[in-house]
Amino acid sequence: MNTPRSREGNMVRGTIYLIGYFIIFGARRLAVVDGKVRLWGSILFLLLSLMMLIFYIYRFNRESRYFERSDTTLPISDHFGQLVLITTLIFIVRMVINYIQLAQGIGYTSIQTAYHAGDSAGLFWFFIFSEGIIISTLQQFLTTGFFFNYFFRQNTLIKAIMGVIFSALIFALLNFSSIPLIFISELLIGGLLAWSYLSTQSLWVPVLLAIFNGVLTVVLL
Length: 221
Prior knowledge:
The protein is mainly alpha-helical. 77% of the residues lie in helices and 2% in strands. It has one domain. A two-stranded antiparallel ribbon has the order 1-2.
């Protein structure tokens, strides 16, 4: 039960981390009411999110000595072309979805609805911090860092493909989108983030890409 080689232990740890994420997500919703940022709600979100982020980082660093690493992993600089491609694809997916929303009226996500209700500078910067940075970072700890090293440890092609698919699905579910087209776009982006992690074996690569995706999402609100 004490190392990431224990399936039962991994399920318990994963459940605890997931509950922590839901707490932060709920705190974010409490901080914004009727399109306005509430002072005490935002303070609560700030304190809880920083505590949870520190907890995630501490646990990941503590457990990483048990994680399996590929012997053929290349330096991140050798993946520059791939990372540029992933960044470009994320940008294209976000722009296409934004265009379809404006042109076809497919509906808005909960964060878009909340922003349009207030549409203020304070709300914009709060979403940049909460959605663009904090929640995006926590999602990558869950969907790539902990997920792959808990449940898809073997370095095989089949495991990698299955891991990317399930990681993308969890990423899409964690964004709570009920609009089919937006859900599909989240699947695509989640798959790209998982691919970047498997290629580089560095958690901070998908984290930075996820922050780019999150900030871009808020900018396009």
